[in-house]
């Protein structure tokens, strides 16, 4: 069985601080989730997918036209 999860965020964020906190949560999830997934007999998210998401955020997540993630 497989499932997909989506993270929907506006490209141009109204609140840059809140957007950074959301990204920090997902950074924590990506860093710690693999071990938790394996402990529950799930397959962790591939590093290539995590890298793709992180690069997309760096390139496209803005506040008033300025990149939020450096």
Name some characteristics of this structure.
two-stranded antiparallel ribbon, 2 strands, 54% helix, mainly alpha, 70 residues, single chain, 2 helices
Could you characterize the architecture of this molecule?
The chain is mainly alpha-helical and 70 residues long. The protein has one domain (16-67). It has two helices and two strands; from the N terminus they run ααββ. It has helices at residues 16-39, 47-60; strands spanning 62-63, 66-67. Strands 1-2 form a two-stranded antiparallel sheet. A hairpin with a 2-residue loop joins strand 1 (62-63) and strand 2. The protein is elongated. It starts with 15 loop residues before the first helix and ends with a strand. The model has no long low-confidence stretch (mean pLDDT 90).
Kindly state the percentage of residues in helix.
Answer: 40-55%
Radius of gyration, CA atoms, in whole angstroms: 14 Å
What does the average pLDDT come to?
90
Provide the domain count. 1
The number of helical segments is 2
Which stretches are low in confidence, meaning pLDDT under 50 for 5 or more residues running?
A: none
Quick one: biggest sheet? Answer: 2 strands, antiparallel
Strands in their spatial order, largest beta sheet:
1-2
**Head-to-tail CA distance between termini:** 36 Å
Structural class computed from helices and strand pairing: mainly alpha
- SSE order, as H and E? HHEE
- Overall geometry: elongated
**Number of beta strands:** 2
Fraction of residues in β-strands = 5-15%
């Amino acid at each position: 069985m497989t499932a997909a999860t989506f993270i929907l965020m506006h490209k141009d964020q109204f609140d840059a601080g809140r957007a950074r906190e959301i990204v920090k949560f997902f950074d924590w999830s990506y860093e710690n989730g693999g071990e938790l997934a394996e402990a529950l007999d799930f397959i962790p998210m591939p590093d290539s997918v995590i890298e793709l998401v992180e690069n997309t955020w760096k390139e496209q997540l803005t506040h008033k036209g300025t990149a939020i993630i450096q």
